[in-house]
Design brief:
Layout: H1 20-26, H2 31-48, E1 55-60, H3 67-84, E2 88-93, H4 120-137, E3 141-144, H5 151-154, E4 160-163, H6 171-177, E5 183-187, H7 195-205, E6 208-213, E7 219-224, E8 230-234, H8 245-257, E9 264-267, H9 277-292, E10 298-304, H10 334-348
Parallel strand pairs: 1-2, 1-10, 2-3, 3-4, 4-5, 5-8, 8-9, 9-10
Antiparallel strand pairs: 6-7
Helix pairs in contact: 2-4, 3-4, 3-10, 6-7, 9-10
Length: about 350
């Protein structure tokens, strides 16, 4: 029995939520969807273990806020994925939750109407619906695990998972990642520290136990075997970049000293681009140059990309938003995305197979 004199003083409402199992029954997996997720997970793990020479590229909007625009983007990305598949394995960035340094829109799951109404159950339904659509098409999806419960609703449709710069140091997120079937990329800290990501990789590789909910929505102790398929994501920090050859070399040395695989993803956005979308293209070009010159540790890149260039503020009336423009970090547009990935494929098509030797 709750004693309101000492508990929940700042809580004004509690709402029951659909359980993970109920949501999965409402949006069930087909054999096509299962095959897409399994193939996506398998391919990325083979890239990490060097059985597949390709780079994988996580490409897509900073955050999903409009399902129609996301669906159109997915159609274009799928066609491009087929075109460059001999060199690049494309995975769509499908981020539903956004960490905020202070306040702001927290993503589709937390606020699908973009008005602060917090219709989380509707957000979960929309998120699962989109992921299922992509899987049915054959396009693998990448997500960021920010909340500790929401993965129970959608993680079965994710081929690659990020743990963000603000949560890489969180022990609960490390424990959660230790149970994921997908490979997990841990970002370096917001200040640029890579040790927190290396520590996270260690933690996630070991057996863990933590509190969460089971598919029926009951509080449960989750016990994990440990996830061996992790890597570091370099995203810069404190307005400084870490994608240059010297920074990559230092990261390789730290991973090697820790007894970890030298697997590095370069995030072309965030502090590596100083949040200037044009600079993402410069970062990608530098990554390709390093690989051409013999780098063997960079196994993936990330681009924040949308249908249109830049970003926009969220209006009081969300219906006034411009179609295909990010409402969080600024993105490169589709034309630039297509051109950049085609150029990367052209430059690396003959180079990447040689890294297997």
């Amino acid at each position: 029995m709750t004693d309101e004199r000492i508990e929940n003083i700042h809580v004004f409402c509690e709402e029951s939520l659909i359980t993970p199992q109920q949501l999965k029954e409402a949006f069930p997996l087909s054999e096509n969807a299962v095959a897409t997720v399994m193939e996506g997970q398998r391919t990325i793990k083979e890239i990490l273990t060097r059985r597949d020479h390709r780079l994988f590229a996580v490409v897509g909007p900073c955050s999903i806020h409009d399902l129609d625009a996301a669906s159109e983007y997915a159609s274009r990305l799928q066609a491009l994925a087929e075109e460059v598949q001999d060199t690049l394995f494309l995975v769509m960035r499908v981020y539903f939750e956004k960490p905020r340094t202070r306040v702001g829109w927290q993503g589709l799951i937390n606020d699908p109407d973009l008005d602060g109404s917090g219709k989380i159950e509707e957000g979960l339904r929309l998120g699962r619906r989109l992921l299922l659509e992509l899987a049915e098409r054959g396009l693998p999806a990448a997500g960021e695990a920010l909340d500790l419960v929401s993965p129970q609703y959608v993680q079965d449709l994710i081929s690659w998972t990020a743990i963000g710069a603000r949560t890489t140091e969180s022990q609960t997120h490390r424990k959660m990642a230790s149970g994921f079937t997908s490979a997990v990329g841990f970002k370096n800290g917001t200040g640029g520290d890579i040790e927190v990501a290396i520590d996270a990789m260690f933690s996630a590789a070991h057996r863990n136990h933590f509190l969460s909910v089971d598919p029926s929505g009951r509080v449960a102790v989750i016990r994990t075997k440990g996830n061996p398929n992790t890597h570091i994501v370099l995203r810069g920090g404190s307005a400084t970049s870490n994608y240059d050859a010297e920074s990559i070399g230092r990261c390789e040395g730290r991973l090697r000293a820790a007894g970890l695989r030298e697997n590095i993803m370069v995030d072309c956005s965030h502090d590596n681009s100083q949040r200037d979308p044009e600079r993402q293209l410069t970062v990608l070009e530098e990554v390709a140059r390093q690989i051409e010159q013999g780098n063997r540790s960079i196994i993936a890149v990330m681009l924040e990309s949308h249908l249109e260039w830049g970003n926009q503020p969220i209006h009081e009336n969300p219906k006034e938003l411009s179609y295909g423009v990010s409402v969080t970090d600024p993105c490169i547009d589709w034309k630039a995305t297509q051109r950049a990935l085609r150029d990367t494929r052209r430059r690396l098509a003959k180079v990447l197979p040689n890294r297997m030797a």
